[in-house]
Amino acid sequence: MKKAVLMLVLAISISCSKSENSGNKEVLREENTTAAKVVTDPVAEGKTLIEGSDCLGCHKPDEKMIGPSYKEVAAKYENTPENVEMLADKIIKGSSGVWGDVPMPAHGFSK
Fold it and tell me: What residues are paired with 39 via a beta bridge?
């Protein structure tokens, strides 16, 4: 399930980044020697994960609620593999003191 959380963080980061092609929803293809593997749109996959969890109780895409908006998080953290891993870890284990006094509880996703 950590992979799903990583996809969620990546999708949030990608969907909130300032990109001229932000409306582009093309399907990416990764090929290997045995078969082609279709990788789904990470933004759509992230939205599905968000809608299936309790994220929207504290976070919104464009405005601060209890926690920061997704755009605020994307603006603070550059979209790097290290930041994606770190943010996924904060979602899984919980976090406090980064965005104010209200802690984010652990979301102990498991398989």
Answer: 28
Residue 102 counted as domain residue = no
Cα distance between residue 84 and residue 10, in whole Å: 6
In the 8-state DSSP scheme, what is residue 63?
Answer: S
30-39 pLDDT, tens per residue? 555 555 556 6
What residues make up the domain containing 32?
2-17+25-93
Please tell me the total count of domains within the chain: 1
Q: How many other C-beta atoms are found inside a 10 Å radius of the C-beta of residue 72?
A: 16
Q: What is the pTM of this model?
A: 0.62
Residue type, 3: K
Per-residue pLDDT at 21 exceeds 90 = no
